[in-house]
Amino acid sequence: MSGRLTRERMLDAVEAQAGLVRFALAGGGDPGVVDPAAGVGSCPGWTVHDLVAHLGTANWWGGANVREGNPEARARGMRGVMESAPPIGEGVSALADWYAGLAAEAIRSYTDTAPDAPAWTFAGPGRADYWLRRQLHETAIHRWDLEHALGGPAATTPLPEDVAVDTVDEFCTAMYPLTSAARPPLPVTIRLRAVLQAPEGLATGAEPVGASDPGVLEWVLPGGDGAPEVEVVGPPETLALLLWGRVRADAAGLEIAGDRAGLDAALEAGLSA
User: Fold this and answer.
1) What CATH number labels 161-269?
2) How far apart are CA 165 and CA 159, in angstroms?
3) Which of 66, 155, 161, 230 is most deeply buried (CB count within 10 A of its CB)?
4) Over the range 187-221, which residues count as b (16 or more CB within 10 Å of their CB) and which as e?
5) Which CATH number, 3.40.120.10, 3.10.450.50, 3.30.559.10, 1.20.120.450, labels domain 7-155?
6) pLDDT per position as a tens digit, 158-196
7) How large is the average pLDDT for residues 249-262?
8) How many other β-carbons are positioned within 10 Å of the β-carbon of residue 259?
9) Is residue 270 over pLDDT 70?
10) How far is CA 41 from CA 38, 87, 246, in A?
């Protein structure tokens, strides 16, 4: 199994996140209120159209890597899929239909393929369920971007706690190690502590990551030699949004202890870059 969630839970969750993308584009039943040219504050320089075109292409690519089943080479064709997105002038309904088709195709690929089937991954030869997990969290973060762009913080749908825990876990154990290898060491060691509201609901995957207290999970992003430490404590979803650069360290619900200046410097540089 890839990650902290069962395959069945990941399938349900990615379908739900893709459904929320479609719902947001529907504008509460009135797609005319959604402007595809509106800016997306959490993705500077992108419009709603850009965001959905990116997400649809990413969802397609995850499924394509699973369908091709070649652990030695990534799937090709992303540019053609991106260019197939309806022009911005065709409106949001056409864009929503385009996205829905690509997301559904990817979910069928995950459903119809054995989780341990071979597939190329960012870390090299791996398993098909790598892409189910990766696209679940890709969709969840960009769904937040879309809802936030269209309605502000109050319009964002809370991420289920078990999914949010796995978003943090995937970042810390799979994505960050890949991106950090080519960058200078962090100026501070970041210790993350997720405080759970329903720990009994997390019996869906792997064992807790170094939990020292009931209802608390821990991860560490190591800094350079001799780096000071900072501890960040909060709800799993807020930690996930912090790691992916969607909220700042002063976000509601976060408690910071230790080298705050070092944390701010690390966040300013971007942990997900």
Assistant:
1) 3.30.1050
2) 10
3) 66
4) bbbbbbbbbbeebeebebbeebbeeeeeeebbbeb
5) 1.20.120.450
6) 999 999 999 999 999 999 999 898 889 999 999 999 999
7) 97
8) 20
9) yes
10) 9, 21, 9
List, in sequence order, every beta strand (DSSP E) within 196-242.
Answer: 216-221, 229-234
The tokens describing 7, both together, are 């395959």
Return the pLDDT at 198. Answer: 75
Is the pLDDT confidence value at 212 over 70? no
Q: What is the pLDDT of residue 214?
A: 58
**Domain boundaries along the sequence of the chain:** 7-155, 161-269
**Counting runs of H as helices and runs of E as strands, what totals does the chain give?**
9, 6
CA distance 148 to 261: 27
Q: What would the mean pLDDT of 74-89 be, rounded to a whole number?
A: 97
- Provide the token pair at 38: 């509106």
The answer to whether the CB of 244 falls within 8 A of the CB of 49 is: no
pLDDT digits (tens, 9 = 90+) for 45-79: 999 999 999 999 999 999 999 999 999 999 999 99
Q: State yes or no: pLDDT of 124 exceeds 50.
A: yes
Is there a contact between 149 and 48 (Cβ–Cβ < 8 Å)? yes
- Residue 154 class from Cβ within 10 Å (0-12 exposed, 13-18 middle, 19+ buried)? exposed
Question: Would you give the end-to-end CA distance of the chain in angstroms?
Answer: 27
SS3 of 59-99:
HHHHHHHHHHCCCCCCCCCHHHHHHCCCCHHHCHHHHHHHH
